[in-house]
Amino acid sequence: VFARAIDGPHAVQLLKLGAVGVIPEAVEASLQLGGRLLEGLGLSDDAVVRRLEELREQELERLKAAQEEGS
Questions:
Q1: Residue 30 has pLDDT above 80, yes or no
Q2: Which alpha helices (H) appear in the chain, and where do they start and end?
Q3: Is pTM, for the whole model, over 0.85?
């Protein structure tokens, strides 16, 4: 099951219920806004993409760790 969560705590709850892929809306919206800001500041498209990928990966790791703590 892939799911859209409202925020981080909701994502953890969905993961505990068996979802295998969860995207927190608030996090993704913030990343997209941050990406636009970085583009507006003149960063290259490649640099923006790399940074957003790093941040998404960090968020996924944080969610996995939170899920494991609650197990």
A1: yes
A2: 8-16, 25-40, 45-70
A3: no
Q: Encoding tokens for residue 63?
A: 């969610």
Q: Is 52 helix (H, G, I), strand (E, B) or coil?
A: helix
Average pLDDT estimate for 37-62: 95
Contact 19, 3 (CB under 8 A): yes
10 Å Cβ neighbour count for 15?
21
Number of Cβ within 10 Å of residue 14's Cβ equals: 23
Angle at 64 between CA 62 and CA 69, to 5 degrees: 95
- For range 52-67, the mean pLDDT: 90
